[in-house]
Amino acid sequence: MTYTGHSRLADFVRGLGALAVFAFLLVGFPVAMYKMFGSPLPDKLPTWAEISTTLMRPDTDQTVFIATIRLIGWGAWCLFIVTVCAELVRYLRGRSKPAMLSSAWPMQKLIRDLVATATLTFSAAASLASSASAATHMHTATGVQAAADPAPSKQGHSTSGMSTPAPATGASEWTPLLADETPSEPEPDPHPWRTHIVKRGETLWDLARRTYGSGTLYPKIFKTSQDVHQPHGLPELTDPDLVRPGQRVLLPRPGTHEAPSSKTGTRSQHEAGHSSGARQPAPTGSPSSASKPPQVQAPVVAPPAERSGSVAPAAPHHHQDDHHSPLEISLPSGSRIGLGLAAVLSVAVAATRLHRRRRRPLILDPGSPPRPAEEPPIPAPVLKAHQAHLKTHADRGAPVPSDTDIAYKDMLAAHPDQIVLGTRDGNAIAVSFAGLNLGLSGDGGHAVARAITTELLAQARRYRAEVIIPRADAQTLFPGDDIIGLGTELEGLIVTPSLREATDRAEAEFFRRGRLILTSEVSDVPGFRAYDECEPLETILLVASAPPGSEVLSVIAALGRRYCIGVLVLGAWPSGTTVELAADATVTDADGPDAARFTGTRMFHLTADDATDLLRTLRTATGNEPDLPAPPASTDDAPEPEAQPVSAMVPPPRPSGEERCRPARLNVLGHVSLHTPDGPINTGLRQRARDLLAYLSLHPDGVTRDQAIADLWPDESPGGLVAQFNTAVNNARGVLRNATGLEEPKYILHSAGRYRIDSAVLDVDLWELMAALADAGPGTDDDARTEALFRVDDLYTGEFASGLDGIWAQNQREYLRRTIGEALANLARIIQEDDPERALAVLERAIEHDAFAEPLYRHIMRLQARLGRPDAIRRTYGLLEGRLFDIDAEAEEETSQLFHFLLRPSKRG
């Protein structure tokens, strides 16, 4: 029996077990209770005197105990019956939310799981019956065909007594997105979609990856399957992240990728235009594939993939302009990268910030102002890639994700299966990592190899990818000594002493993966990943120079696809496809099986300096960087912090009395918005005007137009930006004049070549906050500092300019977050002796603003220990662990040791 048969039989057995449990709870349990305790209805109601007497006397005969057990048993069964009825009503009404109170949700979830598992009995039985019928039909057809046309052997003799069936022409369950052969026109299928029953452990991402070759296309399956009628007892498909065993989804049949309309069942012409209808190859592990020479994975022009907010290597479609392809980013150094690499670099930036936030020490010196510890800045090329990725969300109208959202979505990412190498005529040229067999030569060969290697290393976290490279080749691609150190610190990078050790490591992986595949009855590594998700089987890329006459690399490239191992050769490669690259990474010549597909392609490439910056950021993304410097013991010898606009600015003085009320107010803490005394201004303000107002709030003394344009719109063509800037100023003025009814004020002043907000008519919440921070600075007594810090606690209502993705906004957001965290920690330090409860409340608000700052949690646990609250200490530590789990991190050893120390039983003399 095949693996699929074992799986269906297991589903059938689990379904029978769930059905038996459900039947026992529904019928068997009350029968057993009746046999043991009799009827639940009493003969007569007891009087209050009888109840009092029974409860006051010793329970020597266990009467009260048995009555209690009987009451609890019958009460639980009644709750079970009520919940079953509620679930039945919910199902008949088509509701997806719980129909009962939250206290009954555990019972309701148990019933849902039992019903869902019980349905496996019927679905698995039907699948087993259909499989048996199909196997009988195939055996009969194969026998007739073998008898009519016996296949000759290699010696020219016919085979007698046994026959080998030809492999099926349908798609493999793990079909790559890019086919080996030239796409052919498929025959029209009147029923292009088939119904698939979800098995335990399957996700829509897995199904999309099997069907389309890319998990990022799972929204197609979800959209098409929303109106599919589900079996009795199973909810409708309403959440793409939540599918249950036994639910039905629609998958395209082999050879078609078109989606019918969710309402009418007809094909969608838009989705049909995004599918190639390529003929799918036979499974690599099929009997016929062993006798054929392996073919190179052929790149094709890949259509833009549909996205649904997930972080994945496939790049979303952008509006094309006159200067670059919509799938690429040009860095200041001349490097060009794809949005796929930008997406994974965005994860590295988010993870780096979160790790630094949780490890940054607090400055609690009462004589020093709140200021951050010195940190190495994130390289400019990485920040630009991060900003380009965030811009893809804004372009399609999706909310800009926070660092926490980006890091959490990265936990759900699958193994990398393809890479976009470049563009041609505005389209992406993509190849599969599995079985990659490509040589890069010419002036731009090393730059392209750096881009490919860096993108795979950026996806290497959580055992998803691995790059094996000999030391000499590593130093060629990444000049300097950094690459050797990174080889021991960067996850997924294996630097071997020589090519021999690199090929030996690849060969060892072949043997290990071959044994795993053989014992699990699957055909390849992608199939084994679905079979056992806990076994680390990374996508491996061997990057090396091929010496003349090298046969080992040829064998690895020939066998690599089945085992998800690829070969990238630095130089000409007679055993595969070689592309000749000019200095700008344009393919000038190509030779090999796929030469025609690469001709004219402009490949992505990285300079050595940019690649090194990217690799260093990947290292800091794991939290693996030197410890941040400790806070200075005194302010006399402490170095000056790096200049920050928000810290260096001096907010305008606030008037008092009647002049204090200005006609309009700008809020930049949280969502950028304008307000008048009558309420918020909800219409008329354009996005560029909103960005400009937030930027000017950081510069009360004004800023030149050229500086504002360079910070606000660094990637846009300079030709029309002056007009855009003027339009933004006019828009802001016009909206404020219409809202306030005051025509005379300009609101944004222009004087001596500098633009600034008119503080006489426009109030800014950030200025109030910075004034309060200044009042809490050095030279202030504790009472005045306490009052100012309480104002800081009230005024900080949200992070700076949430939703803006500019680098300037991100930097100020991070700086202000840690500044407020230290300010609140100092406030708690000042008041904790006299009012520890209020100090705890202040620290709890601090971790709401900075949820990953471990020093704040340690401060809270120490204060809870002083108050004698061990349970509160456990809750605080559990809260920290839960938040760190969302970003795949663990508490530092210092925090863990403090937790166990505070809960250690005190020694009594």
From TrEMBL:
Residues 283-292 have a biased composition (Polar residues). CDD domains: LysM. Residues 293-305 have a biased composition (Low complexity). It comes from the Bacteria. Residues 143-172, 228-331, 621-659 are annotated as: Disordered. Keywords: Membrane, Transmembrane, Transmembrane helix. The chain crosses the membrane at residues 12-34, 64-89, 110-129. The keyword Protein transport does not apply. The keyword Membrane applies. PANTHER family: TRANSCRIPTIONAL ACTIVATOR DOMAIN, TRANSCRIPTIONAL REGULATOR REDD-RELATED. This is LysM peptidoglycan-binding domain-containing protein. It comes from Actinomadura violacea.
